[in-house]
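Late entry, written up from scratch paper. The run itself happened at the end of the previous shift, but nothing got recorded in the book at the time, so transcribing now.
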Amino acid sequence: MIAWLSGDAPFPSLDRALEDPNGLLAAGADLTPRRLVAAYRRGIFPWYSEGQPILWWSPNPRMVLYVGEFKLSRSLRKTIRKETYEVRVDTAFRSVVDACALAPRTGQYGTWITPAMADAYEQLHVLGYSHSVETWLDGELVGGLYGLALGSVFFGESMFAHRTDASKVALASLVALLKHQGVAIIVCQQETAHLATLGARPISRRQFASHLAELIHSSEPPSAWPRGVLMQNKHEQTQ
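Output as recorded:
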């Protein structure tokens, strides 16, 4: 049996998470900033469908991308050098979340980014926790990602692309930004072959929890987070 959370009830120990389905730890509670930040600090995240109670997960193993292990392919490097895309940070957060909710996923029907989830992460964005990295082409948002920053960890939530490599350009830009900020790992909520091609790999829940204990020492949002243009479109630079 999993724990049912109500009020300010704390999350149970991670070792109580089920093996099948992998990582299901608890249900109930709410999506307030306080609850979400407490969850992420321990490596727990909400994942549920419309009409279900809120479900809380801590899978084992956990997919992470160590920032220094990001694999920048030759083709992606070439795309970035062309400077066709413009990359911005936090200029269209809700648009990125909504685009991720509509993005088709192989083997999945519907979306876990319910309106309540989108609203919750938008509230976290206002408070300085959640951020978007956006890929723009000729003034149109064509790709991007969003996630949550705590301590020296970035928890990636979702990404989308409407043009070739648009989401990968956003991820490469995020990696460069996180290196500059001294952030060590990007947490991936799901283990996929696509993420593995970019350098992500699974680690045990125990090792993951140890990383979080070492890298997150506060529930406050990081203070130094840029906003605006990271990489400008070459065509726009010549206008």
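The first helix runs from residue 33 to 41.
(Scratch paper discarded after transcription.)
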